[in-house]
Design goal:
There is one protein chain. By secondary structure, the chain is of the alpha/beta class. 30% of the residues lie in helices and 25% in strands. A hairpin with a 2-residue loop joins strand 12 and strand 13. Helix 1 (21-31) packs parallel to helix 7, helix 8 (236-248) runs parallel beside helix 12 and helix 10 (319-327) packs parallel to helix 12. The longest helix is centred in the middle third of the chain and has 13 residues, at 236-248. The structure holds shikimate-3-phosphate.
């Protein structure tokens, strides 16, 4: 589908972004291993999380959808999954594939996990190698580098002490999830802290998780105790598109309601504020183990900055839209240490550089980042999403704030934010478009 986005006069009012993708995946996976039903509210009913639901159903877990965003998950206990009759399909979702691999590695049955063409190109050795050290038996295509993955029953799973070479919440979570079935503690150390939703949710389900600095330790789990209700916060990675749009479109004043503000995810707020953005974190509260707030943002002048080191995992999914912000900022923005972007749903460093170039932007692509001098004028263009939901939405923000854009293959926003273009349309009506 080709989607045309017109320039927006200003962005005002309120937007409720959909539920957090990472937390939605984890909620249905752990609920599926609990011993009594769990109700999940504000679940992200988008393609990625629905892939997880489909896999859990294929593993014998009853999942009922209640209304648009409610789920009731009836787990059969920690050892209650059953052998799937067919191949499990994770679709486009790296989180589904990597986290489920950890769970499946602990099962007494055979399973095969595959995904779409993009997911089958993404690196899987990063989970298979440490899981193999734990005693798990997993094979994949091309010497176990890529999916499909075949997962065989293990003779016994052992806890490990593992130093992760990259800060990846998906790898950490796969090891923690396999660690539930281990005969001893699983200890993982990261180079920098990545999102900690798995740790928090394991605690919600009664597991013993200890954290010290960059190390997390999980004790083997006997059973997961279902909380009666999980309330999924809004996704800060979805909110990020509006944070940037409202900052760079003059006259904007917007409230984003019920957004997760877990400190392992708020790098985008920190960096935009450092660039001069006017963002207030209001009405802070908790949804279970997760902090939630409303984000109030007003248009502001930005200046360039340096983005590197420990903050990278705290805004890893926001870099495409941060690059758009940098095009509106005065001075140079340098992003480095972000080579992980090359193995996301697309090679995002390449996709950002070549798609924004179609709008006239000059961005220097480095092996591990981007160098962007601003401000730069953007013209209207026909761009391509590379089948990557976050690219489609970042390009849309550039078009809203500048001269408009047409985006090919834009339906991929359904991966994480199916209402994205409807939300734009509602604001086009409310605030009018610029011509
Ligand atoms: C995710 C972790 C990140 C992120 C992805 C979701 C998660 O991936 O990019 O969108 O839910 O754990 P990595 O762990 O590969 O960095």
């Amino acid at each position: 589908m080709k989607q045309t986005v017109h320039p927006l006069r200003r962005l005002t009012g309120e937007i409720a972004v959909p539920g957090d993708k990472s937390i939605s995946h984890r909620s249905v996976m752990l609920a599926g291993l609990a011993d009594s039903p769990v109700r999940i509210g504000n679940f992200l009913a988008a393609a990625d999380c629905l892939s997880t639901v489909a896999c859990m159903r294929a593993l014998g877990v009853r999942v009922d959808q209640v209304g648009e965003t409610g789920l009731i998950v009836q787990g059969n206990g920690l050892f209650g999954l059953s052998e799937p009759e067919s191949v499990l399909d994770a679709g486009n979702s790296g989180t589904t594939m990597r986290l489920l691999t950890g769970i499946l590695a602990g099962q007494p049955f055979f399973s095969v996990l595959t995904g779409d063409a993009s997911l089958r190109r993404r690196p899987m050795a990063r989970v298979i190698a440490p899981l193999t050290k734990m005693g798990c038996r997993i094979r994949g295509r091309e010497q176990s580098r890529f999916a499909p993955l075949a997962i065989m029953p293990a003779d016994g799973i052992h806890g490990i002490d593992y130093d992760m070479p990259v800060a990846s919440a998906q790898v950490k979570s796969a090891l923690l999830f396999a660690g539930m079935f281990a005969d001893g503690p699983t200890r993982i150390t990261e180079p920098y802290t990545s999102r900690d939703h798995s740790e928090r949710m394991l605690q919600t389900f009664g597991a013993k998780v200890a954290r010290k600095g960059l190390t997390v330790t999980l004790a083997p789990v006997r059973d997961l105790v279902a909380p009666p209700f999980i309330d999924v916060p809004g996704d800060i990675s979805a909110a990020a598109f509006w944070l940037v749009a409202a900052t760079v479109i003059p006259g904007s004043a917007l409230r984003l309601t019920n957004v997760g503000v877990n400190p392992t995810r708020t790098g985008i707020i920190d960096i935009l504020r450092r660039m001069g953005a006017d963002i207030t974190v209001a009405a802070e509260r908790r949804a279970g183990e997760e902090p939630v707030a409303d984000l109030v943002v007003a248009a502001a002048k930005l200046k360039g900055t340096t983005v590197e080191g420990e903050i990278i995992p705290r805004l890893i999914d926001e870099i495409p839209v941060l690059a758009v912000a940098a095009l509106f900022a005065e001075g140079r923005t340098v992003i480095s240490g972000a080579e992980e972007l090359r193995v996301k749903e697309s090679d995002r460093l390449k996709a950002i550089t070549c798609e924004l170039a179609k709008m006239g932007a000059v961005i220097e692509e480095t092996p591990d980042g981007l160098i962007i001098d601003g401000p730069q004028p953007l013209s209207t263009a026909n761009c391509d999403s590379h089948g990557d939901h976050r690219m489609a939405m970042a390009l849309a923000v550039a078009g809203l704030a500048a001269a408009g854009v047409a985006i090919d293959d834009a339906d991929c926003v359904a991966i994480s934010y199916p209402q994205f273009f409807a939300h734009i349309a509602a604001h086009q009506e409310a605030s009018g478009r610029r011509n």
